[in-house]
From TrEMBL:
Homodimer; disulfide-linked. Catalyzes the hydrolysis of both di- and triphosphate nucleotides (NDPs and NTPs) and hydrolyze NTPs to nucleotide monophosphates (NMPs) in two distinct successive phosphate-releasing steps, with NDPs as intermediates and participates in the regulation of extracellular levels of nucleotides. By hydrolyzing proinflammatory ATP and platelet-activating ADP to AMP, it blocks platelet aggregation and supports blood flow. Its EC number is 3.6.1.5. GO terms for biological process: nucleoside diphosphate catabolic process. Signal peptide: none annotated. GO terms for molecular function: apyrase activity; ATP binding; GDP phosphatase activity; ribonucleoside triphosphate phosphatase activity; UDP phosphatase activity. The lineage of its organism: Eukaryota, Metazoa, Chordata, Craniata, Vertebrata. The active site is at E174. Keywords: ATP-binding, Calcium, Disulfide bond, Glycoprotein, Hydrolase, Magnesium, Membrane, Nucleotide-binding, Transmembrane, Transmembrane helix. This is Ectonucleoside triphosphate diphosphohydrolase 1. The chain crosses the membrane at residues 12-38.
């Protein structure tokens, strides 16, 4: 110590050097701060972001995902950080006011600008995918659906994000991406573990997707999606039933009950004491029921609830056609479905409805579930309103129908038995991220799921890759990111499309 002090004191140049070094350090620091301030450069961000808008039939939702900036290609690393529910109905409801569809997204876009650090805005991919509501509008009135898309695209182009296109997802994509999401969040893909099937119930369509050892696509090619993920091959069975989302299914049931154009209808799927005037032209204003509109009918009919679960089941069952099957086995409406296999995650309206009804425990005996629904449906409407003053009246009025529909769809439609029903888990979120197709869709379009396991020698480019036939895109083709129309670039395609 003292020797040191002696040396410092002894060395005449020591003070000069110290002052010199300190001076340089101060100048460097000032320069650094000045440059930083002048360029307004924030500190480097730890995360990257991606945004997907889910334009569903009943509403639009925006999801923001993040992942560590230094490593894009690892599983389980992409998580949902934020979400935003667009006020008002789904974009397909803006057919007569397309501009309104674009404007409706404003608040959620603002929220996204605040949630994603501004230094990342320009590089953050933004996708919009529309599902069954737009599929139906496209069938009904293609120019109206084009106008809605134009308005929505204009709104999203004006955002600071990297807008990569708005399009309608095919039913197969909707089902398959929901399956990818669930299994990605559960970490089942990297481990090569047994996967979970996915059940999605929307307002206008519903999907079932699961890996089946007995299904290679021979019987029904358009139900097959094949992928190679983290070095494992999957044959996924998937089917989307248009018009079997819970809103359209209710329309179908009401249409069957009003085929003769009555002025009043006693309906077992609504609570006793429930009474409402329904407009014929409004009820039949959907391609799901348009063709069965009665030739002659009054303007409205009076819908009166009788609250009878067993009769409701009978009425609901009539919207399924079990009469024909050209395959070895079918679900309903002549659709091929292999034997159910493994566990399932059921989300969206399965969750909303069964959670409200306190019926998410699928291990309860089937009879108990039926008894609860029987009692629930029989509860007078006035009591329901008194007990649930803050529940949206439309939802409250329809839970008896919705619960009955879900039970019928799962057991009679998809053939879940008292045993296999227990394999269904009713979920809303997995590790903080919503279950749904959006995350899988983004992972695919941003190539964030590698075809080979990360520690395996990269024989092929690390991207989510399907086995394409001779006409499929070459492996390692251009990244989907460089195109504005992801429908041409999605590397996940149903087998039928690949073979045609
Ligand atoms: O997939 P598609 O068919 O396009 O429709 P969507 O994406 O808009 O459908 P959601 O899963 O958002 O919702 C499914 C249905 O559940 C309804 N719903 C949403 N929240 C609900 C709640 O809390 N209680 C009851 N029903 C609800 C909603 O109105 C739809 O009819
Ligand atoms: Ca949906």
């Amino acid at each position: 110590m003292s020797e040191q002090r002696e040396m410092k004191e002894a060395s005449p140049g020591y003070r000069t050097v110290t002052i010199f070094v300190a001076g340089i350090a101060v100048i460097a620091l000032v320069a650094l701060v000045t440059v930083g301030v002048l360029q307004n450069k924030p500190l480097p961000q730890k995360y990257k972001y991606g945004i997907v808008m889910d334009a569903g039939s009943s509403h639009t939702a925006l999801y923001i995902y993040q992942w560590p900036a230094e490593k894009d290609n690892n599983t389980g690393r992409v998580t949902q950080t934020d979400s935003c529910r667009v006020d008002g109905p789904g974009i397909s409801s803006y057919a007569s006011n397309p501009r309104g569809a674009g404007e409706s997204l404003g608040d959620c876009m603002l929220k996204a600008r605040q949630a994603v650090p501004s230094s990342r805005h320009g590089e953050t991919p933004l996708y919009l995918g529309a599902t069954a509501g737009m599929r139906l509008l496209n069938i009904e009135n293609a120019s109206a659906s084009d106008a809605v898309f134009q308005a929505v695209e204009a709104a999203l182009h004006s955002s600071p994000f990297s807008f990569r296109g708005a399009r309608i997802l095919s039913g197969q994509e909707e089902g398959a991406f929901g399956w990818v999401t669930v299994n990605y969040l559960d970490d089942r893909l990297t481990q090569g573990q047994e996967t979970t099937g996915a059940l999605d119930l929307g307002g206008a369509s519903t999907q079932i997707s699961f890996v089946s050892a007995r299904f290679d696509g021979t019987e029904s090619p358009h139900n097959l999606m094949t992928f190679r993920l983290y070095g494992n091959d999957y044959n996924l069975y998937t089917h989307s039933y248009l018009c079997y989302g819970k809103d359209q299914a209710l329309r179908k049931m009401l249409a069957l009950q009003t085929a003769s154009g009555p002025t009043s209808l006693s309906d077992p799927c609504f609570h006793p004491g429930y009474i409402r005037t329904r407009d014929y032209s409004e009820l039949y204003a959907s391609p799901c029921v348009a063709r069965s509109k009665p030739q002659a009918s009054p303007r409205n009919f009076t819908l009166k609830g009788t609250g009878d679960f067993d009769s409701c089941r009978t009425a609901v069952k009539k919207i399924f056609d079990f009469s024909k099957c050209n395959f070895s086995r079918c679900s309903f409406n002549g659709v091929f479905q292999p034997e159910l296999q493994g566990s399932f995650g059921a989300f969206s309206a399965y969750y909303f409805v069964l959670d409200f009804l306190n019926l998410t425990d699928t291990s309860a005996p089937m009879e108990t579930i039926k008894d609860k629904l029987r009692e629930y449906c029989a509860t007078p409407w006035a009591d329901m309103q008194r007990q649930h003053p803050s529940t949206k009246v439309k939802y409250l009025a329809e839970y008896c129908f919705s619960g009955t529909y879900i039970l019928t769809l799962l057991t009679e439609g998809y053939n879940f038995t008292a045993d296999t029903f227990k394999e269904i888990t009713i979920i809303r979120k997995i590790k903080g991220s919503d279950a749904g197709w959006t995350l899988g869709y983004m992972l695919n379009l941003t190539n964030m799921i590698p075809a080979e396991a990360p520690d395996a020698p990269p024989a092929a480019p690390r991207r989510l890759r399907v086995h394409h036939g001779a006409h499929g895109p070459a492996a390692g083709g251009p990244s989907p990111l460089h195109h504005l129309h992801p429908q041409q670039d999605s590397v996940l395609q149903p087998a039928q499309d690949r073979m045609s």
